[in-house]
Amino acid sequence: MPASLSTCPKPQLEELQSALRAQYQRHCEANHALDLTRGKPSTAQLDLSDALDGILAGNYRAEDGSDCRNYGGLHGLPELRQLGATLLGTSAEQTIAGGSSSLTLMYFTLLFAKLFGLAGAPPWQLHRQPKILCPVPGYDRHFAICERLGIEMITVAMRSDGPDMDAVEALLAEDDEIVGMWNVPKYSNPTGITYSDAVVRRIAALGPRAQPGFLVLWDNAYAVHDIAAKGDPLTAIAPLAQAAGTEVAQFASTSKITHAGAGVSFMAGSQALIESMVEQLGIAMIGPDKVNQLRHVALLKAGGLAELMAGHQALLAPRFAAVEEALSAHFSGSELLSWSRPNGGYFVSVDTLPGVASRVVALAAAAGVKLTPAGATFPYNRDPADRNIRLAPSFPSLEDVVSTMQVFCCCVQLASVEQQLANG
Asked: Which controlled-vocabulary keywords does the entry list (predicted)?
């Protein structure tokens, strides 16, 4: 493929299109059933934590002597809260441990903030139209929560070191309806970038610039999910935010560490934020699954977490290397595609030429390859440039990742040539 299509004469483009259509037809005839849609752990990754089954050997007593089979303990087991605090760079006293999904805690946080207010702040529903800042491309489930709760989303561009903070600060200065800001600060979904120290410090200082009740939402889902031999460092936001007077709700889970559907989750924040969350949660539940929490303590203590993550790294690294190898082979030096090269996390973010992403996804689907819908990484599923696609290579086998990438690259090339010919 030429580096640029705009300089190709029409006969050459037509010849390229013919060759690519023949290649694409062969992919269609191969009866593929491939899927790169969501960042699920593979079966081999789940196998790494099978020691959870039976690990308690009938001993259900926590370190404080309480029986984990019984009611209570809304904050979660103290020993597990300490593990969560270590992940998030805060204290156990300001961390709670919950059930299998941090997304549930995020949903409740926004729901409680809107209806009742948190940490003594007024409810968001008192605003004419509460709004949240959303760095893009970003995480579709964050956007879905906002859309369901009627919170307007304002996009902010994601740069190589994090969100465009000049834009964030300007928006806060001009719009007093902004009540929060989403963040995936380490190996961001889907770009894979990690926020720089300077960006973390500016986010930690946003509180005094915003209206009362402003909440930084810090979804640190990939805190220990390194792929490269040397992972990215992330500055701890908690002490900086506390010094500045900014409320930060931090989240993490073991969903991509142990068994994805049977893990534990964490939330951390100021003492006032955590206690107001626990007060609200106490109306909805008696307590989390403390037996499962105790199982995780037994598995992850005494270096178990580091050993487990090394196992994940060994399984994920070849898959991400296969994605990089295919993209480099087909598009190195080309304007047709740019992509992220993350040191960790679960995704590779690619940008096609403007107006091409939706066509790539449709072509891939017809060839038996499922991709995350174009636009999913933007609020309301609308990518204004129609160019971003999220690739998730964790779940398929390495062989299937290699096959999928060949189909994907063909679809990008074909869709790009089609567009150039259409534009004449």
From this structure: Aminotransferase, Transferase
